[in-house]
Hints:
Layout: H1 9-20, H2 25-41, H3 57-60, E1 65-66, H4 72-79, E2 92-96, E3 99-100, E4 115-118, H5 119-123, H6 129-138, H7 149-156, E5 161-166, E6 176-182, E7 191-193, E8 196-201, E9 206-215, E10 221-231, E11 236-244, E12 250-259, E13 264-273, E14 276-285, E15 291-300, E16 305-314, E17 320-329, E18 334-343, E19 350-360, E20 366-375, E21 380-389, H8 393-401, H9 406-422, H10 428-440
Parallel strand pairs: 1-7, 2-6, 5-8, 6-9, 7-10, 8-10, 9-11, 10-12, 11-13, 12-14, 13-15, 14-16, 15-17, 16-18, 17-19, 18-20, 19-21
Antiparallel strand pairs: 2-3, 4-5
Helix pairs in contact: 2-7, 8-9, 9-10
Amino acid sequence: MTTLAPSDTYADAFEAVRRTSPVPAAVAELRRRAFERFTALGIPTTRDEAWRFTNVAPIANTAFALAAPAERAAAAAHVAPHAATGVGAGQALLFVNGSHVAPASDVSALPAGVEVTSLADVLAADAGVATRQAVESHLAAVAGIENEGFTALNTALLRDGAVVHVPANTVVEQPIQLLFVTSPPPGGAPVMTHPRVLVVVGENAQVRLVESYGGGGESAYLTNAVTEVVAGPGAVVDHYKTVRESPAAYHIASMHVRLGRAASFSSHAVTLEGAIVRNDAQALLDGEGIECTLNGLYLATGRRLVDNHTTIHHAQPHCSSHELYKGILNGAARAVFNGKIIVAIDAQKTDAKQSNKALLLSEDAQINTKPELEIFADDVKCTHGATVGQLDEDALFYLRARGLGLEQARNVLVHAFASDLLNRIAIAPIREQLEDLLLAQLPGSGGGSFHVGE
């Protein structure tokens, strides 16, 4: 039986949110039901199948307090490294310690009819009618609270987050950044934030989103994030997520996507830092002719743990899905990849491909990989594959024979392994920024602690 530890931490947080963050009656009832469900589910343990290889006891055993507004100078120092380049001016929202920072946000350059605003403002009725209706219709409708404890906790402690509403037949040319930064007090108690993102994209609309998470300081903190994406018929959504939490931080996140007929959705998740990082991605292909792509790149060193769980549910015929996840592990780092493809009985002509590749740079690094297929239709093309290996000795010899040192040769091969996925990022400045961050963690760069063979 799963239990909470400490038992009163989350109850106190729920009461604080209920008292200090008034919301419409329907949302208040949603929060109440979500907390009841979280109390029943608790924090998962390794006895739960979906968490068998991911021990979150350090989270369960820490008394996290709700993060308070950060001191301005400290917050600015923690925010600066995480701002994405290549995001157009007037198209970014900033959240620090879970709360929207209006003076540092600017969405003035958005096309007419597009609203990018804080969830707290929407719940206070400080938003357009269409956006309020979108929130009322879709909030917690895609990310259910019945089976996922962390999702239920996020919903119970709902205070603020980002709402992106793109009306039908609207094209947003420049990417929109949603930046969530935790700035814990120096030497203070561990804090937690529960960001919520709701993206509603109308029929034949197009948008690109950059969802970034980071933090500073040396103390532990918890980011428990939930993202919901609803894309109408013919909509195109290009989504990027970066995780660069502090080395002592915990990042638990789930993304829930529902796609309409002929919609196109792609997500590229890059995990670079964090003590424990769990990324769940679930997509429901709920119409014919949908294309869905889930890609991920993850790096881990020391004793870090990165867990990627994906589920793509083909509910209708003539849809295609593609997944490529790549991991680079060093030291005593651990990773988990669990990818599930479900093909419903009526989802004929499904074309689904899944691949997970891991590069282990030390003898102590470890990955648990589990591809799954549940196919109930008979006219489908579904493939999955998983490879785990080390650097190719022949390739190393080839590079060294041409004058490269051992360290340089290893870096070239690691970079080539990651570049296959980085090159799929269509926003060039963001791709270059992530490539620089990767290179900074390779030995000899002087910029990081990612050392081959440590």
